[in-house]
Design goal:
Elements (H helix, E strand, L loop, with lengths): L6 H8 L12 E2 L7 E2 L6 E9 L4 E4 L11 E6 L1
Antiparallel strand pairs: 1-2, 3-4, 3-5
Length: 78
């Protein structure tokens, strides 16, 4: 199982790189060729997530007034 990265871990990792280097996020585009795409990061924000069995990963909770112990705050980069 992969350990989840914390903000502290991310800060430590980013310090290994040039401060003026661009930041991108890589993911599979889902096409026939299994292309890896890497859009640029344009923002970072705190938001709420909960585990989704359907997606088998966390999903962003849209309703800010929703109160449940399954919901937790995370930092999302986009």
């Amino acid at each position: 199982m992969t350990t989840k990265m914390t903000v502290k871990d991310l800060i430590e990792k980013l310090q290994e790189f040039a401060p003026d280097a661009e930041v991108h996020i890589a993911y599979s585009y889902g096409d026939h060729w299994r292309t890896q795409v890497a859009p640029a990061v344009t923002e970072a924000e705190e938001t709420q997530v909960e585990w989704s069995e359907y997606h088998r990963m966390d999903r962003i909770v849209d309703d800010e007034d929703y109160d449940d112990e399954r919901i937790r705050p995370v930092v999302v980069i986009r």
